[in-house]
Write a structure and sequence with these properties.
It is a single chain. By secondary structure, the chain is of the alpha+beta class. It is built from 4 helices and 4 strands, in the order E-H-E-H-H-H-E-E. The protein has a 4-stranded antiparallel sheet. Helix 3 runs antiparallel to helix 4. It is elongated and about 50 Å long.
Length: 119
Amino acid sequence: MDRVALRGLRARGHHGVFPKEREEGQTFIVDLVLGLDTRPAAADDDLAKTVHYGVVAEEIVAVVEGEPVNLIETLAERIAQACLKHEGVMEVEVRVHKPDAPITVPFDDVTVTITRSRV
């Protein structure tokens, strides 16, 4: 399986379990690795035979900016399901970063990574 990766998609969302997170929102960063067969697109040099990563990026930003959820695990699942709606995408790895998570000790990042497939 071939891979198409999008890294560092940024969007402001209102996800979290604390009222301040819901009210003020924060930046979330999403990395995606889409698994698909790119040979048909490459053979014909045809965008219609692969995944349009610009469209995927816009859809994922809309998910992050959309309906709030408590957990980034839930957000990652919603993102994965949106990616799998694209014909040809057989698998997706989603990593959601929450760099401004409300943690009381110094840290660099909080992430949740999931892999989902059509199978």
